[in-house]
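When time allows, look over one protein, given below as sequence and tokens. The question is which stretches look regular and which look disordered:
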Amino acid sequence: MKKLLLITALSLIWFSLSFSEEYKLPHIQPKDLVNDGYILHTVIPIETEGPRVMLYTFAKNKTKIVSCVVELDALYADGHICYNVTN
């Protein structure tokens, strides 16, 4: 029974990782979203990741939603990952 539970848990992790890649927006920055007509809806700090990591949520036409995890650290030029939530 424990093996079945372990296999199920590992399968779900693997599927969720591959599933998230489908929604990932490569080479998109928050400024690109604003230039494309998206409006910043919310900014939520992700305290478990550090004091300078934020979740930005953008909306366009109330039907398109994009969320970006942004690291506000000067050391990281690529400190963001954006996902199309309504893909």
